Each structure stands twice: as C-alpha cells, then as structure tokens.
From TrEMBL, chains A, B:
<dbReference type="InterPro" id="IPR023772">
    <property type="entry name" value="DNA-bd_HTH_TetR-type_CS"/>
</dbReference>
<dbReference type="Pfam" id="PF00440">
    <property type="entry name" value="TetR_N"/>
</dbReference>
<keyword id="KW-0805">Transcription regulation</keyword>
<dbReference type="Pfam" id="PF17935">
    <property type="entry name" value="TetR_C_27"/>
</dbReference>
<dbReference type="InterPro" id="IPR036271">
    <property type="entry name" value="Tet_transcr_reg_TetR-rel_C_sf"/>
</dbReference>
<dbReference type="GO" id="GO:0003700">
    <property type="term" value="F:DNA-binding transcription factor activity"/>
</dbReference>
<dbReference type="GO" id="GO:0000976">
    <property type="term" value="F:transcription cis-regulatory region binding"/>
</dbReference>
<feature type="domain" description="HTH tetR-type">
    <location>
        <begin position="4"/>
        <end position="64"/>
    </location>
</feature>
<dbReference type="InterPro" id="IPR050109">
    <property type="entry name" value="HTH-type_TetR-like_transc_reg"/>
</dbReference>
<dbReference type="InterPro" id="IPR001647">
    <property type="entry name" value="HTH_TetR"/>
</dbReference>
<keyword id="KW-0804">Transcription</keyword>
<feature type="DNA-binding region" description="H-T-H motif">
    <location>
        <begin position="27"/>
        <end position="46"/>
    </location>
</feature>
<dbReference type="InterPro" id="IPR009057">
    <property type="entry name" value="Homeodomain-like_sf"/>
</dbReference>
<dbReference type="InterPro" id="IPR041478">
    <property type="entry name" value="TetR_C_27"/>
</dbReference>
<keyword id="KW-0238">DNA-binding</keyword>
<protein>
    <submittedName>
        <fullName>TetR family transcriptional regulator</fullName>
    </submittedName>
</protein>
Length: 194, 194
C-alpha cells in the first residue's frame, strides 16, 4: 500500500511542477499526476489551486521569517540585533535572487498573487523588528518613540536592499556600499543634535 | 511648403505612436508615417530607433529633474529644502503613476532600456541633493560628513516612495504615513545621542 501523502511532500512536488510548467500553466491535475495520486486525493489536502499556491508561498516566506525570528529572540544589545536582523534579511533575499533568479521571480510572483499571505509576512517581520526596537528604547540605546512606527520605518527605509521588485539592482557593485550609507543615515540621522 | 521638423514635434509624435502601438511594436517607419515624412527624413534627426527612444526617455526624465533643480537652487534652510526636494520627487512620481498608469509603465520600460540615460538621471538627482546637503553641513543644520554619500543615502532610503518598480504599492492608504515615519527616522536617527 502507498504511504499516506504528507503536506511537505505535496508542497515539494508542487514546487517542482511549478518550476517545470510555470505559474500560469500549472494545474492541480499536473501536481496530482506528479505525485501519482488522483486529483480527488489532492483536493482532500488543498481545496483549490489557490490554496495550494498559497501554501507554497507561505512555506517559502517562512524560510525568510524563521531565521529572523531567532535573531529577534537572542540576548544582546538592541543595536547589534537590529543590525544583524536587517543584514540577515538583506542577505537572505539577495542570495536567493542570485542563486536562482528564475525561482526567485516565480516565488515572488506567487507571493504577490497571495495578498493575504504577503501581508501577514510583512506584519510578522515588522513585529519581530518592533520587539528589538522596544528593547532598545527601554535600555536607552534608542531614542524614545513609537517602537512599531520606528520598526516599520527601518523596514521601509531599507526596502531598496530587500524588496524583491528591486532585485535587478542588487547586482550593482555599489550595493553594499549603499547599504552601509543608508544604515549610517538611519542610525545617526541627518540633523545635527543640539 | 511644409514647415521644417522640430525635435519637439518628433518627440511628441513618437510619444503618441509609442502609446498607440506599444514599446516593442513601434518602428521608426510608424513614427515617420505619423509625422507625414519619409523615414529617411526622420533618420536625419535620429540615427536609430534606439536614439529616438532615448531622446523620449530623456525628455520625460527632465520633467522630473527640472522642477527639482529649481528647489535645489532656492534660498532658505537646507532642512526645508531637502524635505521639499524629496516630497516633490515623491509627488511627481506618484502623481504620474496615478494619472496614467499605462503611460507611466511605458516610460519606465523605455527608461530601463536606456541604461545610460537612467544612470545620468540618477546622478543628476543625487548631485542636486548633494548641493543641499553640503549647504546644511556648512550652516551647521546637518551633521558633518560626506555630503555626496549622505545625499545618496537619503535618495535610496526613500526609494519605496519614488522608485517606479514599487509604483503598485503607492495606492496603499498607509503610504503617506509611512513616508512621514521614514522621513522622521532619516532626519532624527534611531540611536539616542549621548
């Protein structure tokens, strides 16, 4: 008798099939065929093609948020943590884009279609960053203020270095230098303190 | 006898033809036909289709850089000027995208094809901003440092609000609030000054 289908197995196969046929041309029947099951069996796990695609997008985004969540939970100075967190985010996105640009583009198209999944992902990332910023405000490392707003501002001010829609520019030989300059601006500020 | 062809006339017509046929399907012959001249005549003004497209992209980008250049040249506090400059840049890009998303997308595709044109445009913008930052460093409004690097950092840290590849997100109801938060972060900095 065949082993029961696991969720991971279905998502692995869906990924392979999506990669072979592309986002638009992949059907649930294709995935079922690649798994060697009927599409009825597959529909018992995922009620629609949209649900299946969302699950793939969600798993991919967890590969980003999970290591970042660990950094947010570590001990240490808030300044070091916020820097590690942003650098790790930038590193994860840029290395995925570099290693396999096609797969990266496919995943981003997939995530863009799943608005709720991507919104939840951004919220999760900003919540992690908010936690670090709160710690820094409490410890006196950071200026007092609204930690959530400040975290969102850090996230958006570094978008050039981690937003998938800007991936084409990450190949620039200046990109690391530019990140350092933006980081220094964000942390120290433009205006002279009196 | 026909009036002599002006450069502006050719670019206006090219714009209309590009709009009707799209970037890929427009040929120099189409533009010549719309102008009522032979393509030989048109080639005397622009040596290739690429040159014609570059000229259209350049003119469009000047609509962005010219009003910004005026702000950079005004009298007044550097702080007010840098804020006006960035707000104007954000406003120009976001209103063009809103008024006519298709034309906006076409122009950006056109500009992306003309790498030298877009590079020169970014350099011009950062040079304008550098001038304002230098003034602010001299007047003591801004922290001392490398004005060019600081200007580039301001430009890149606000990319979310003016980079055409992110235009889809400008429709968000939070976008103005997010700009304010990023602006406040950039000017004041995250870290508490001792």
């Amino acid at each position: 008798m065949a082993e029961p289908l696991t969720r991971e197995q279905i998502l692995d196969t869906t990924e392979q099939v999506l990669r072979r046929f592309g986002l638009d041309k992949t059907s649930v029947v294709d995935v079922a065929r690649a798994l060697g099951v009927s599409h009825g069996t597959l529909y018992r796990h995922f009620a629609s093609k949209a649900a299946l695609k969302e699950a793939v997008a969600e798993r991919w985004l967890h590969e980003v948020s999970t290591p970042l969540g660990k950094i947010a939970g570590e001990e240490g100075s808030a300044f070091d943590k916020v820097r590690s967190w942003i650098e790790r985010l930038v590193h994860i996105k840029q290395s995925k884009a570099k290693e396999d640009p096609e797969l990266f583009a496919m995943y981003n198209a997939l995530a863009e279609e799943s608005v709720e999944v991507i919104t939840a992902h951004i919220h999760e990332l900003i919540a992690q960053l908010t936690k670090i910023v709160e710690e820094g405000m409490k410890s006196g490392e950071f200026q007092k203020g609204n930690a959530h707003e400040q975290a969102a501002a850090i996230f958006y001010a570094t978008a050039r270095f981690h937003h998938p829609a800007l991936a084409k520019e990450w190949a620039s030989s200046h990109i690391q230098e530019e990140f350092k300059q933006v980081w220094s601006l964000i942390t120290s500020g433009l205006v002279k303190k009196s």
